[in-house]
């Protein structure tokens, strides 16, 4: 029986505080602006991936949460090709190495969070895929070098190769060689950032979006001003706020950038709306929480969907997550280890319509915080015979 | 018994297709950008105002829909002062004229539409007030000259002094002397523009907006690009579209400008949201209608509120208003003369969530079209004894 080669990793979700929106090169996933994210803890949200290869495999395959995925798409193919190329170089320099670069790949992946939650899982997914294959191939590439490859799978995946606070520098080279992720600060630099995710109920379904960031690039007349002028300024200020651990500055930049990103979506023709009435209710309650505190202790941000991610500091847990627990305590999610520890705090001067809007429109909450980058694990999702492990 | 002097007028509502948002001088209501509107028919929406003066009146007063209004505010005072000043000049040049400029004013006003509908009534209100007093004083000032005064009452009121298609040129003088309304084209030039207004139910109340255009000016980093670059380009294109009676161009400019205006509101810090899920549903249905027609036959626009105003041409009434009647036929408003004539048309490929959103969120419809400017009437709301007429 032929040998089965395996490597497994977990990789985190990241939620940007300076948003990626718009590609200057759609095939290479080269962005129109730099972006910056917080990596979230894998105990709450992670993808677990095993990469394996064997001369016995007949074709490349990818199983996600038990469902076969198409691997023929250009994004997955680009990752496979780049990683095989690096492996091939290694093999050429050391003839004793097994010729893994010529074998088919079997990838098995599982998320520890429901896909239905509408959380961007492609970032964690491609980061785990690239990291696991790189480990399988015993590549010496650094996370920044691997970020060039993960970016081609899914733009924001490049940021999930690091823990803590991560920037994706847009670069300027036509081949994308300098469009890479780097660590702004490790999780240990500012470990007490927490987040509560308010997952919008799919029952409260909004009107479908004619989606696509490239429509924004092509039609929004406000977009280029954001990409060229506003984001570069914010990137500098955000890195500085993180270095100084200045939460109020971090919060204001985060909220302004989310607002500005969704403004350019609304300015797209036809307009793209990701925020719904539930999202706007979350914004108002965050404003109420900050007004009651007399300073910015909570910061909302929204990706391309209605779920609010609200960042706060551990020391303000009661005043932020506790207030949400006060009126959303019946929702799913508080039973987690983090959720159970949150003390209920009665909110001051909350907008009644906003509170009712969240009660009606939030289906579950997820409590999490800043966390580490990909972690190599020995828990393989492919067994020694090369079969996917049944779970 | 002393003589009672009276003059009465009706004045129209106008709905901008290039929006006014932001003041460069708040006390003079000088805008940061020019704007352009369509005057709507007074048979559907109008303010009826009688201005009267008499030596027997003890104080200035204003009665709106039977309720006494405060006249001490700087906006109303500015209008009174400017108009009295013009009357005073006339009196100086002709000693035989009665000294109306020294008498107190009694103004009585009525709207033919419910205030609760959330339609900007201040434009029609101040236009009627200024026009009625100018008639009372027998001023020779042109509508453009009077627009300088009405603008100080309510910015967009200056556009309600004309019928048809009206621009408000922002001007550059510090005293506002060149910030005036002018006729782009009379109603007769392009008489077949129609509009359906979808009044959003107050039961579907959104989260309150932290309002204020000056917050946008102060905090939106996208706003100045709109005001300085985008609006001037659109003003030129819109005037051209109106001159050529090119509805598709008119429609696209109207929708883009509404989108861009609401984008800068969303970019305000904290963000201002006027559109709710009902508004977004209206946008999707207009997109569906245009997709079915293969060209832009309907154009949505939203002022500072959730009500959609949808412009279309009389020849497309069925394909636009008829489609709305198809699923909103039970709502109030179709019983009007215009509404009764609209033939129901079954929409093609309508977004089901959007249709449901409008069924849930629209309380009434108003059918109207382009119309005339203020009209002098003999139906006085103040009787010969100087008393408000009971209605």
Report on the architecture of this protein.
The structure is a homodimer of 391-residue chains. With 391 residues, the first copy, chain A, is an alpha+beta fold. Chain A has helices at 74-93, 122-136, 143-153, 213-219, 223-244, 247-266, 277-293, 317-328, 337-341, 352-361, and strands spanning 5-12, 14-18, 23-25, 30-31, 35-39, 46-54, 61-64, 67-69, 104-111, 165-169, 180-185, 193-200, 298-301, 308-313, 362-369, 375-377. In chain A, α7 (277-293) packs across α10. The interface between A and B is large, with 39 and 38 residues. Chains A, B: GO terms for molecular function: ATP binding; diphosphomevalonate decarboxylase activity.
Produce the secondary structure layout.
Two copies of one chain form a homodimer.
Chain A: E1 5-12, E2 14-18, E3 23-25, E4 30-31, E5 35-39, E6 46-54, E7 61-64, E8 67-69, H1 74-93, E9 104-111, H2 122-136, H3 143-153, E10 165-169, E11 180-185, E12 193-200, H4 213-219, H5 223-244, H6 247-266, H7 277-293, E13 298-301, E14 308-313, H8 317-328, H9 337-341, H10 352-361, E15 362-369, E16 375-377
Parallel strand pairs in A: 7-9
Antiparallel strand pairs in A: 1-6, 1-16, 2-5, 3-4, 5-10, 6-9, 7-8, 10-11, 12-14, 12-15, 13-14
Helix pairs in contact in A: 1-2, 1-3, 2-3, 5-6, 7-10
